[in-house]
Amino acid sequence: MYRFLFTATLPAVLAFGTGATAQDAPEAGGTLLPTLNIDAAADDGMVPFSSAIASKTDTPIERIPQAVSIITQESLVQRRPQNLESVVAYAPGVVPAPWGRDNRFAQFLIRGFDIGPYGVYRDGLPQKVIGFAGFAMDPYSLEGLDVLKGPNAVLYGETDPGGIVNATTKRPTFEPLRSGFVTHGPFGTWQGGADVGGPVGEDGALAWRLTGLYRDGETGLANSTNDRQFVAPALTWRPDAETELTVLTNWQKDKTTPALTLPVAGEDFPADVGALPGWMWETNPADSYYKADIASAGYLFSHEFSPGLTVRQQARVARQETDYREFYFNGMISETEMNYADFTVNETATTGAVDTQAQIDFDVAGRANTLLLGIDYSRMKADSSYGYDDSYTISIIDPDVSVTRPQPGAYYDGVQTIEQYGLYAHNQISLTDRLFASFGLRQTWVKNRFDDHLGGDDVSQDDSKLVWDVGATYDLDHGVTPYASYATGFVVNTGSNFEGELHKPTEAEQVEVGVRWRPADTNALFSAALYQIDKTNVLTTDPAHNGFWVQSGEVRHRGLELEANVDLTGGFSAVAGYSYIDAEITSSNDGDEGNRPALVPEHEASLWANYAFRSGRLDGLSMGAGVRYVGSSYGDSTNARETPAHTLVDAALRYRRGAVEGALNVTNLFDKEYYAICRAGGGCGIGDEREIQLTVSFDF
Fold first, then answer.
1. Positive/negative CA dihedral, 664, 670, 673, 678
2. pLDDT tens digits along 239-286
3. Which of 72, 62, 2 has the alpha carbon at shortest distance from 41?
4. Residue 626 lies in a domain
5. Would strands 120-122 and 163-169 be described as parallel, antiparallel, or unpaired?
6. What are phi and psi of 507, to 5 degrees?
7. For residue 81, what are the domain limits?
8. Which residue from 108, 109, 233, 408 could staple onto 116, CB 3.0 to 4.6 Å apart?
9. Is 20 contained in some domain?
10. What angle (nearest 5°) sits at the alpha carbon of residue 138, between those of residues 136 and 143?
11. Would you say 474 and 480 are in contact if contact means Cβ atoms under 8 Å apart?
12. Mind listing the UniProt keywords for this protein, alphabetically (predicted)?
């Protein structure tokens, strides 16, 4: 399939001019290519000015009728996050790591929906989890990241209504680049990296970049690992100002440790039994690990046929081989005994995606239009074998998790394949000098297939869905821009009801109003948004037929988000955010109607501020600090057990002298002990403890 995909599309790219990227055009001839990068890095500093995540065309933030948070390259430099959850930690409406420490793949909530594994995109193409393949990305390989909040199915197809995050890979540069770093991190972790590139030859048509990292470390638990190696070569060819091809490749090898969840005295078992010994919270059970070998290759291509017509294509294939084993707490057997389960995964996952777009800029009755016509295709496939054995009993009073464990028998062995085809159109129009509107329409076809290697019960299902969105912005005086929008989305449900009818997709719709203010005399952007998201056709228990499901479930999320981005000439910069969510299960047969959905905090707030000295004796010194608050939530929809709120403080100190910079970064500065999640009968997952990194970076 992938061989056909690339041999068919690349000649089409060369013949018809497709793909996309956004580097500065060479001086000779032609006009500047429109930016396609869904690119936080294009904004120099902490304040965003444009993004393509909401339209797939370079659009000023004020013209986007939907909430967007941009994590720029400057933000990554100041905070030096070590995973994707930390990258988005200061974005309002986003809750990172709701399940606790887990390096297998990125996990986070957007607007209260748990979309981390399924809402991740890279360079505008899906990089979702399938099976246990997360295709993890290291922040050092990225230029920035955008968060689009709310349903966005018109441009991206099947996605959960909370939103998506899109990471922008580092691109070749036509200016010489030579940099590297060495970091000594927490728990004896050492890592080093290099980022080099520049032009090839003297004609300015070729540029290259090579980014790499090596890490050897632990997670803070005994018997743990936190190792990574990756290398990412990239090449850009720009023969003229109208044509550009960028090839991006990546090879990565990870070995890390799964999350740790344990029962708590007085909650999961009687307090008079006595708490678990402290070493249990500090030890990864022997032979629990997560190994992943990841490789990907893709391209972004663009050709401008005329000032009003640009055709683009972007494509990528990726492969991950996963070897995963975990010995974990699986509930209480009695007041003094725990059940443990041994779970194994042997899996090979492949993904492929291609997105072809034509951008047409034209006027109608003197009104400027930007019309995007697109066709996309994606395919995810996982060849998986899962083993499971829950026969282990561990004493609370004298626990021993070093028991000998034979390989568990397979309970799942098969191949899951998901294919999606889509046709979409999206138009932006200036109705007046102040009023701007957008409208989008998409038809999607989704095919799910499972080939069962154990029982031979192969199943397949085809779904289709028409979705649309509409929005408008209006420029008031003094940099104030209110907006309003309506958007729809969907998620496919596999299986059938008692009557044998296939489940319909779960549907979502969002109404959002907001306002942005960009002061004329200050480099700042302030945003506020009110929204309501309704999910319908949610699967819930069939009260008349045990073991079956009906689609009468409904969920509603209402919320408020506030965000501020400030970057002053005196050296002060800051990002701040607040989120309030009123979430409710409005219809259910599962006994949880009227309850709050799992994991959703009512309040969440954050502030990061940085001051850089730019003159005098302290020139080169930069100091930053941040605070993050996540309110209480429930571990499941029964609302039987609450996860307490927590507040964390981070700090950073940097000093640059010439080509060398030293940096000290600390997360959870006061080493706050907290639970990331607690579930009724399921124990609690601990949150991240204090982590200190000392980094020396240099240009050469």
1. negative
2. 999 999 999 999 999 999 998 999 999 999 999 999 999 999 999 998
3. 72
4. yes
5. parallel
6. -105, 155
7. 41-699
8. 108
9. no
10. 120
11. no
12. Cell outer membrane, Ion transport, Iron, Iron transport, Membrane, Receptor, Signal, TonB box, Transmembrane, Transmembrane beta strand, Transport
Nearest to 691 by CA among 136, 226, 269, 161: 226
Residue 538 lies in a domain: yes
pLDDT at 30: 32
Burial of 638-652, coded b for 16+ CB within 10 Å and e otherwise, reads: ebebebeebebbbbb
Write down how long the chain is.
Answer: 700
Per the DSSP assignment, residues forming a β-bridge with 455 are none
- Residues whose CB is less than 8 angstroms from the CB of residue 698 and which lie 6 or more positions away in sequence, other chains included: 179, 180, 181, 659, 660, 661
Contact predicate 257/284, CB 8 Å:
yes
Strands (E), 241-268: 243-256, 261-262
* Tokens linked to 120: 């991740």
Read off the pTM. Answer: 0.91
Domain contains 17: no
Which residues on neighbouring strands pair with residue 553, listed in sequence order?
Answer: 538
Alpha-carbon distance of 69 to 433, in angstroms, equals 26
3-class SS of residue 42: helix
Q: What is the DSSP letter of 479?
A: G
Amino acid identity of residue 433, one-letter, is D
pLDDT recorded at residue 43: 59
CATH number at residue 205: 2.40.170.20
Segment holding 15, helix H or strand E: helix 2-16
- Render pLDDT for 593-611 as a digit per residue (tens, 0 to 9): 999 999 999 999 999 999 9
Tally of domains in the chain: 1
* AA identity, residue 88: V
User: How many alpha carbons lie under 13 Å from residue 167 in its C-beta half-sphere?
Assistant: 25
The answer to whether 603 and 610 are in contact (CB under 8 A) is no
Computed from CA positions of residues 392, 397, 398, 399, in that sequence, does the dihedral angle turn out positive or negative? positive
Distances from the Cα of 232 to the Cα of 11, 171, 294, angstroms: 24, 10, 11
